[in-house]
């Protein structure tokens, strides 16, 4: 697993991606893994390099002619909008884009847009900014720019984060012509459910200062946490508890396991058909999986669920699972699903912390 990770890191350290034709060598590398034990570690590294090359998106550079000009784009709101005091930020999956009568090469790409309050027609109080919902299809007029970030040593690498999220450009929504809602609930049913849960919290607890914290713990959306709360978390070293990870998923899995085991073991007819421990392990696996989906599938949540899934699967199969092996399998699974995960700080904090704890 570590060799596979090192192969991915070698690719991500290159100044530009090699030609994708190199991925044709992946079957041969897999053959070496199976039939040449002495070369297994280098083959794992090569497999990681080629796998990342196969799945990592090419770095799309927005043409200079499309920067700072009005573009007409249609697409789907792809994330739960982050509502701020002066603007709302969201990501848009582009269906089609045009500059005047000419098509723009942005179809299928992901944009990060800001819709500022001053971009709403303030002359009519009867027409406030419409509500954005995940999966709705909209038509916007936008101005885009290439991803840029600060270059302060040790600071947050915003450009790298955008690339890891596969966002090709950032921009703002223009007021004229006004945005138009074209269709509702066309995509992203899971994120729509997450947004519905967040809105339900806000309706039931409209004036509670801790509503944002409850939403963060329930569905992984941290936009409702106020600056003074973040300052308090950072001063007390508890900010990481707002990111759904091992403690949260372990708590859900543990509660479901204990509840099902307690009920199952008290019903002789069920126990005679299937042991209570196996039934509880399966229920814990399903319960933690549902919570992980609601959390937005962040890297810490993925790692925690995969480690728990390996342990519960071992319990179902009546196999003993070493903690280090569980961590290695979780690492390999995360890298197979998302080779871009090492670009995010959460990946290193998550796996690094667990590795130190196990050591």
Helix content: 40-55%
Percent range for β-strand residues: 5-15%
Number of strands: 8
Structural class: alpha+beta
Calculate the mean pLDDT score and round it.
87
Counting DSSP H or I runs of 4 or more residues, the number of helices is 13
**Integer-rounded radius of gyration:** 23 Å
Strand order of the largest sheet: 1-3-5-7-6
Q: Describe the sheet with the most strands.
A: 5 strands, mixed, barrel
What global shape is seen?
globular
Residue runs with pLDDT of under 50 for 5 or more positions:
122-126
Between the first and last Cα atoms, what is the distance in angstroms? 17 Å
What is this structure's SSE topology?
Elements: H1 2-12, H2 26-35, H3 40-55, E1 70-77, E2 82-83, E3 87-99, E4 102-103, E5 110-116, E6 137-145, H4 158-164, E7 167-173, E8 180-183, H5 189-204, H6 211-219, H7 227-236, H8 246-264, H9 268-273, H10 276-294, H11 299-316, H12 323-337, H13 345-358
Parallel strand pairs: 5-7
Antiparallel strand pairs: 1-3, 1-6, 2-3, 3-4, 3-5, 6-7, 6-8
Helix pairs in contact: 1-3, 2-3, 5-6, 8-10, 8-11, 10-11, 11-12, 12-13
């Amino acid at each position: 697993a570590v060799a596979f990770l090192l192969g991915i890191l070698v690719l991500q350290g290159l100044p530009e991606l090699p030609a994708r034709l190199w991925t044709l060598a992946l079957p041969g590398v897999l053959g070496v893994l199976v039939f040449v034990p002495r070369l297994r570690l280098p083959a794992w590294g090569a497999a990681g390099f080629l796998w990342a090359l196969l799945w990592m998106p090419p770095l799309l550079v927005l043409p200079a002619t499309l920067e700072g000009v009005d573009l007409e784009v249609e697409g789907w709101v792809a994330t739960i909008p982050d509502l701020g005091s002066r603007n709302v930020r969201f990501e848009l999956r582009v269906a089609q884009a045009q500059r005047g009568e000419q098509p723009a090469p942005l179809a299928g790409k992901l944009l990060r847009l800001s819709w500022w309050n001053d971009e709403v027609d303030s002359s009519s109080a009867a027409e406030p900014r419409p509500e954005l919902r995940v999966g709705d299809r909209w038509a916007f007029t936008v101005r885009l720019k290439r991803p840029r970030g600060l270059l302060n040593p040790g600071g947050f690498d915003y450009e790298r984060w955008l690339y890891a999220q596969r966002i090709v450009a950032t921009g703002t929504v223009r007021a004229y012509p006004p945005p138009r809602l074209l269709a509702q609930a066309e995509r992203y049913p899971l994120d729509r459910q997450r947004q519905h849960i967040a809105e339900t919290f806000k309706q039931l607890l409209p004036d509670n200062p801790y509503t944002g914290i409850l939403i963060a713990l329930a569905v992984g959306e941290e936009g409702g946490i106020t600056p003074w709360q973040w300052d308090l978390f950072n001063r007390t070293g508890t900010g990481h508890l707002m990111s759904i990870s091992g403690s949260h998923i372990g708590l859900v899995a543990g509660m479901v396991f204990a509840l099902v085991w307690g009920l199952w073991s008290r019903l002789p007819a069920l126990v005679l058909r299937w042991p209570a421990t196996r039934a509880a392990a399966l229920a814990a696996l399903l319960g933690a999986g549902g919570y992980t989906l609601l959390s937005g599938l962040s890297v810490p949540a993925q790692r925690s669920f995969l480690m728990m899934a390996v342990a519960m699967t071992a319990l179902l199969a009546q196999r003993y699972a070493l903690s280090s092996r569980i961590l290695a399998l979780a690492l390999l699974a995360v890298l197979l699903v998302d080779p871009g995960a090492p670009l995010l700080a959460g990946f290193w904090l998550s796996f690094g912390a667990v590795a130190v704890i196990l050591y």
